[in-house]
């Protein structure tokens, strides 16, 4: 089937593209040529390498979100200030190949406290397209987890907590790496650490070295140490973001395994939450942007 | 002057040796051949490379502390369990050169909560040798800061907080590295972050990404971001170690710049504290161990 338009999610470490007809996927590709590995002049070639056989003689519309729109990206798509709708402006990227017309979606920024997002605004728009009446909190867990307060179709405020990146730095770059050599997590240890840091957040930093010492002294299992580090960080995050989730419905949008940890943690606080499919909402957000660019929807 | 004995502080990343006559230094050397870069069979040669011209025909006593006594070191000097005096046992390392006799000082361990130290026990012993009547808290800031409760010449309990290593991991391995490119720290920003995390520890993790966002949105100066990260981590540490320092005299033993940050932070809580010279207490501890090994003191 002929590609009508191309949806692109172009982050720091990865590039994903979907060949689309309306809101339906007809093909998909991905590559590891993320923004972090490309100079501004290299984006067009990187995209063509991945999708050129989807293109016809006429310009195919491409709609892209993510770090591709940052200052170090293909073209800078300036941040829009919240409160605002998640989809605001797009910027057309410079291209030389007449078969391409590429529009990049702006990220969102907040002045107080200072915060930014790029890519998540598109997922938020997609979630709203699929759930138009949703009011409440969106939680987008990842390297930089976003907590987003939605009301009447607008992003009211948001907060980024970098628990994922801190987990990666501590678990690979400190002495704890010797005691975390597993991908498994002990559920009870996760729950206990979560509960402890939610009650006494200051214990998080104090108890870190104990994970190493317990390994040295009693060969404590790595799946316990890994679960305690994860549970401790998520507990610290939930303690700090309580004004977001307390008494609110929460929808979680992220990779399934990490989303499940957040769901488990929020449910332990009595929060009503659900998971949404991250790929589906990303495509729905890019589709909503495509319809706006084509003048089909507002 | 002829070397009577050799004092050695052999950690993970560095080897330092002093040629001694009694308690007086007659020469000193250092090298970057720490435990982390050596196989067990390579320690003797590394030491000889550094100090062979200090040696006479007879065996010169060498007293060593630090990671040289770990399982991956020259010889394992098993941990002694607290409560106990800081100097407990020594283990003689295997040597082939008749000009050397090397004794390695045991570290200390604690079962509940699990914790270990290697090297700091020697500094503690040296501090006690210089301040025999001290009862109170020793704070040894560093990669792994130790908080030590001393009473009647014994280590009653201790706690390791790895703020230094977490600072290094976050400031070099996460997105914040782009916003911390300075060695300067803004004092007001340090004090404010310290106070905030002492009052509301959970804000530490939540506010991290704001350091990056403030840089992106308002070009906030890196010396403010660096100070906030440092103050936040030390605030989290002080909040968690309050049972150690509250209402107690504290002596700080560490590198001068880091010790000054801890002193500033503790004084802001009304704690009476003083700094001790880390090199001097290390040598005094090694000297106390030397006297015991020679049967000159108990």
Automatic annotation (TrEMBL), chains A, B:
This is 2-dehydro-3-deoxygalactonokinase. Gene3D superfamilies: 2-keto-3-deoxy-galactonokinase, C-terminal domain (3.30.420.310), 2-keto-3-deoxy-galactonokinase, substrate binding domain (3.30.420.300). It comes from Celeribacter arenosi.
């Amino acid at each position: 089937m002929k590609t009508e338009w191309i949806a692109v999610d172009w982050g720091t470490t990865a590039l994903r593209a979907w060949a689309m007809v309306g809101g339906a996927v007809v093909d998909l590709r991905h590559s590891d040529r993320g923004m972090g590995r490309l100079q501004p002049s290299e984006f067009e070639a990187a995209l063509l390498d991945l999708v050129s056989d989807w293109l016809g003689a006429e310009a195919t519309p491409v709609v892209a979100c993510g770090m591709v729109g940052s200052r170090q990206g293909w073209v800078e798509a300036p941040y829009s200030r919240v409160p605002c709708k998640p989809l605001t402006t797009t910027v057309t990227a410079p291209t030389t190949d007449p078969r391409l017309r590429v529009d990049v979606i702006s990220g969102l920024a907040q002045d107080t406290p200072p915060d930014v997002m790029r890519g998540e605004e598109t997922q938020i728009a997609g979630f709203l397209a699929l759930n138009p009446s949703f009011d409440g909190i969106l939680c987008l867990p990842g390297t930089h987890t976003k907590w987003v307060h939605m009301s009447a179709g607008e992003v009211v405020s948001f907060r980024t907590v970098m628990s994922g990146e801190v987990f990666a730095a501590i678990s690979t770059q400190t002495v704890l790496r010797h005691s975390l050599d597993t991908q498994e997590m002990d559920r009870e240890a996760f729950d206990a650490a979560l509960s402890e840091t939610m009650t006494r957040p200051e214990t998080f930093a104090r108890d870190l070295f104990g994970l190493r010492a317990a390994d040295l002294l009693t060969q404590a299992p790595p799946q316990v140490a890994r679960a305690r580090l994860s549970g401790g960080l998520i507990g610290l995050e939930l303690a700090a973001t309580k004004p977001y989730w307390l008494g609110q419905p929460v929808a979680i949008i992220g990779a399934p395994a990490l989303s499940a940890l957040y769901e488990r943690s929020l449910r332990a606080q009595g929060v009503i939450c659900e998971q949404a499919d991250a790929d589906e909402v990303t495509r729905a957000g890019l589709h909503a942007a495509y319809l706006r660019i084509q003048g089909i929807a507002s």
